[in-house]
Amino acid sequence: MSEMRLPSALHAAPGSGAELLSELGLVLYCGAGIIFIVVVALALHATFAKPSPAGTRAWIVGGGIVFPLLTLFLLLNYTLAVGSAVAALESGTALQLLLDCFGIDAQKRIPPPSPGTMRVHVIGKQWWWEVRYEIVRGDTSTAVLANELHLPVGEPVELLLTTTDVIHSFWVPSLAGKVDMIPGRTNRLILRANTPGLYRGQCAEYCGGQHALMALYVKSQPRREFETWLQRQARSVTRPDDAFLLAGYEAFFKGTCPDCHTVRGTPATGKSGPDLTHVGSRYSLAAGTLRNHVGTMAGWIAGAQDIKPGNAMPDSEIYTGRELRALAAWLGSLE
Amino acid sequence: MSLRALIAAATLVLTARQSSSDVPHRITGDVQRGQQTIVRLECGVCHVIPGIPGARGRVGPSLAAYRRNVYIAGRYPNLPEVLVRFVRDAPSLAPDTAMPSIAMSEREARDIAAYLYSLE
Ligand SMILES: [Cu+2]
Question: What is the pTM for the complete model shown?
């Protein structure tokens, strides 16, 4: 894959829920900073100034009761407003009033899902993410991939988050707050980004030994580009013609790979590992652990346990050098 | 100074340098850039490489003390030009090798070779 330019995780994408959250954070930090300075100034004043009983009661009532009540009331409501703005709630008059009070306009709100909202299933696994796009226009097949999500710019996309093993947490700091993935439950999150970009996400709930190596990429791209990408992800692959790639294809079936991996269009229908039908098009291998090129591909196949100790994929040690290279080249060609 | 004395002096200087710095391993490449390129291309998935964080792969041989290796992959003389070619396109030298040809520029391969030759 070509060079990746990732913005800092502290950068909130325009139009995303993270943008509202980051404004909220700014207000809270600045407010707390100002209050801290005032409190320290008052403490110093009380310590060093000559005692003067005048106005003591006003200070106590004003600073001890009125000020905190007012501030906390405002902050509470502001926090509630931001919370509901990012929670994709249905509009109501009371909610609208609350949002208007804090200047959160309709455009900034994350809208509730409508019948036309695209849905994507994201399933947490130790230690990777399965991603399933529900419907591809003009095609009945689903597009299944791993460790990568694509969104059309400016459109809200509904994620249905769940897990097949332990609790994970889906977190793309530049786009939204964390949402837990809990066994037996489906949590929802609406993502939106108003500018094209590539963002990194990370599992945010400790889920075992390789939790730290459970990342994913989210790409927002123009609608056209997105559709081309999705159509391609839904396509099956065919046996390669090139002799070297064919050797790689055969090596795949010589090994145990098809027991765990699906490559649509081939006899490989394993379910416990990531769908590899378009693995060559991904930004990363093994959930953000490695870049994706023929070297890392071959290294992962032969040494998955060194790279991510304890993960479900065994090292493959049955291949000749040429077979390993051919296998890596074939998988890399699945774009 | 006579011509003879000059030649003698030059020979002396050259041989002196030769013995102190392993002439066959001299290469025009940037050691630091080489290190960065090795990190970026993640050669460490297959090799143990001193000075590269996380490089603990066992698919290929350790590249520790590479400067002192006499043969590349046990078969080819460890000369700069041969190493550059091996790093960039191992299968063109050794068709049965497990080391893939990873896309990189000639300069990147030279930098990598320079880094490997810095490993004493
Ligand atoms: Cu985790």
Answer: 0.89
